[in-house]
Automatic annotation (TrEMBL):
Keywords: DNA-binding, Phosphoprotein. This is DNA-binding response regulator. The modification 4-aspartylphosphate is found at D53. The keyword Lyase does not apply. It comes from Streptacidiphilus cavernicola. Gene3D superfamilies: 3.40.50.2300. Residues 133-198 form the HTH luxR-type domain. PROSITE patterns: HTH_LUXR_1, HTH_LUXR_2, RESPONSE_REGULATORY.
Amino acid sequence: MRILLAEDVHMIRGALVALLELEPDFEVVASVDRGDLIVAAAVETRPEVAVIDIDLPGIDGLTAATNLRETLPSCRTLILTSLGRPGTLRRAMAAQVSGFLLKDAPPDRLAAAVRVVASGGRVIDPQLAMSAWVSPGNPLSPRELEVLRLAAGGADAVEIAGLLFLSKGTVQNYLTSIVTKLYARNRVDAIRIAEEAGWIP
């Protein structure tokens, strides 16, 4: 089975390559340290499965997985993460990845997950699935999400008001409501909470 591996920490990447190649039917045909190198490496080497770390320089692992699916749909993707945020799992499912596994899973689970993914199945780490199951829903209205999305993009209250045809006071009211609903310390904290939950990109 031909595998592409994307991991930016050199020691971890080397260890994962060695671990995968312990399996007699696995061959790591490409190993990259940046998300923006994945598609080109996959087109050149034609792997059956791409094992991708979620946090990569260049572009993140989920964006790279989406691009890979569009360019080489025959290649299945298995995302590795060290953090079990429910929003991240939702983003992974939206990106139509085939598997999502915590990095601290037992080593034999990685090989088993690669086999399941390669055969067309899906793998979701039980801890990640439980985290997503028990996480609270999004308390923000569509308009509040729109305001927060623009704020996350760097727009201030005046700019948001102009873009949404609202008054500056109305935008400030929305921002205050958002901070309150998310139990955030301030707007920056509210943006962080919403991003980690997967409610805004």
